[in-house]
Automatic annotation (TrEMBL):
Alphabetical list of Gene3D superfamilies matching this protein: PPM-type phosphatase domain
Domain PPM-type phosphatase: 2-258
Pfam families per record: PP2C_2
UniProt protein name: Serine/threonine-protein phosphatase
Origin superkingdom: Bacteria
């Protein structure tokens, strides 16, 4: 499997700084090409959110460059690899949570960040999610792969809020968890098969608040995205669309299309 990739970020129409951060990595291994992407949406006011998201990105980048190669040297079975990855990510998320909390201890300030991380290896995808940034898969329709760790999602699960009202709910930005401001971080993990032709989308909540899944599918239908330039154009178009609809948050998205080699 090979991957086409595009990314785009925008500070938006209101905020002075962009507190979103993301990184994209790809490597050739003995199990074939491996793809890794992490996206974070920082919060905490001014530089604090930017610092939080950037710190998590740096830590995950270091994991990919140092710890992950060690895992691949130790085991070759994908089941074992992903179990070790899960344990690594859980530990990393909680170490970072403690470090960020200690950084602002005594200042009266708070800082934190969401994280959605995607690893694709040997035709498998593995995702970690904390907060309300999202991962989608788009093929014949749009599939939301992650579930928001948010107050509104909790109220939907309890039957107190209708799903169609979620994006207009006054508490839509209230998180149940984030890295840096939770007592303990309990990430959600997701796994599935990477099918050729599928487009994966990682995005901050600012990217998807003002657009529907139908609009996502119309612009990011993988059958029409034949190269990275076209993918980039669609991400820019959707970003400008949500800005025109007065989205106030930072806006970031990464698109990855899986393509069969040969």
């Amino acid at each position: 499997m090979r991957y086409l990739m595009a990314d785009h970020t925008d500070v938006g129409i209101k905020k002075k700084t962009n507190q979103d951060s993301y990184m994209i990595k790809e490597a050739q291994t003995k199990l074939g090409r491996v793809f890794f992407c992490v996206l974070c949406d920082g919060m905490g006011g001014l530089a604090n959110g930017e610092l939080a998201s950037a710190a998590v990105i740096r830590a995950m980048e270091q994991w990919f460059e140092t710890d992950f190669p060690q895992i691949l040297r130790q085991v070759t079975d994908v089941e074992e690899i992903l179990e070790k990855v899960k344990n690594n990510w859980y530990g990393t998320a909680n170490v970072l949570n403690l470090q960020l909390a200690q950084y602002v201890e005594g200042t009266g300030k708070r800082m934190g960040t969401t994280i959605v991380a995607l690893l694709m290896i040997k035709n498998e995808y593995f995702i970690m999610n904390v907060g309300d940034s999202r991962a989608y898969a788009i093929s014949n329709q749009v599939y939301q792969l992650t579930k928001d760790q948010s107050l509104v999602q909790q109220q939907i699960d309890l039957g107190r809020v209708r799903p169609e009202d979620a994006e207009r709910h006054p508490q839509r930005n209230v998180l149940l968890q984030c890295i840096g401001a939770s007592e303990e971080v309990l990430p959600d993990f997701y796994r599935g098969t990477v099918l050729p032709g599928t487009l994966f989308l990682l995005c901050s909540d600012g990217f998807r608040h003002e657009i529907s899944e139908q609009e996502l599918f119309m612009q990011l239908n993988p059958s029409g995205l034949v190269n990275e330039e076209r993918m980039k154009e669609r991400l820019v178009y959707l970003t400008e669309l949500v800005k025109s609809r007065r989205e106030m948050d930072n806006i970031s998205a990464v698109a990855i299309k899986a393509v069969q080699e040969g």
